[in-house]
Write a structure and sequence with these properties.
alpha+beta, Hypothetical Cytosolic Protein, Chain: A, 2 domains, about 15% strand
Length: about 210
């Protein structure tokens, strides 16, 4: 039975929950506008929140028919959506850091992973494989001790991108901690990884 809150992707025709899709509306000047918060007024249409699917929607020019309006689709639509998701994720990381629910530094991260305080680990895309491997061992240590699922790990941002948000000179490893802000970081990081179609590491030795 279909969920009353499901929406249909205009490309795949698959019904998904709203958080698995990106809503688009027509802006004041006739331009196509991604509505990530799903609150903008006017008729909207929905596309699966994956870069490849949004590229298909733009290339097949299906927006005008779905929105029943002439619409200007920007050439860099999928990149624009990626930038918005990135900004949202980095913004939440900054908020979680202020709330004490996002920590950096290999030693602190290792401890949080081993004692179950963390809900996810983060590594810069330019981090050394040896550092990632050691912290992945810390993730699996807690899982083996408690028989709980291995917490996810993400490599979404460069050290420079993260350092700009955190105000640090050399971000390499971090962890989101249990709590409202930390859970929000995890949710947004999953959404960005899904959009980029990046597998979320849940294995000890996977980078």
């Amino acid at each position: 039975m279909d969920n009353m809150n499901d929406r249909m992707c205009i490309v795949t025709r698959e019904k998904l929950q709203a958080e698995e899709l990106v809503r688009f509306v027509v802006g004041p000047s006739g331009e196509l506008v991604p509505d990530l918060k799903q609150k903008l007024p006017g008729r909207g249409c929905w596309v699966t929140a994956k870069k490849s699917i949004i590229d298909q929607a733009a290339n097949r020019n299906v927006f005008a028919n779905a929105l029943k309006s002439k619409v200007d689709v920007p050439d860099n639509l999928s990149t624009s959506v990626d930038m918005l998701l990135t900004k949202s994720t980095l913004g939440m990381i900054g908020m979680a850091r202020k709330a004490g629910q996002f920590i950096t530094g290999s030693a602190k991260v290792d401890t949080a992973l081993r004692n179950g305080e963390a809900v996810a680990s983060f590594h810069a895309t330019d981090a050394a494989e040896d550092g990632i491997r050691k912290l992945n061992q810390a993730r699996t240590f807690y899982s083996k001790m408690t028989e709980e699922a291995i917490m996810p790990s993400f490599s979404l941002f460069s050290s420079d991108e993260m350092s700009n948000v955190l105000g640090e000179g050399n971000f390499i490893h971090a962890a989101a901690l249990a709590g409202r802000a930390g859970e929000s970081v995890l949710k947004r990081a999953k959404a960005l990884a899904d959009y980029r179609e990046i597998p979320i590491s849940e294995k000890e030795n996977q980078k």
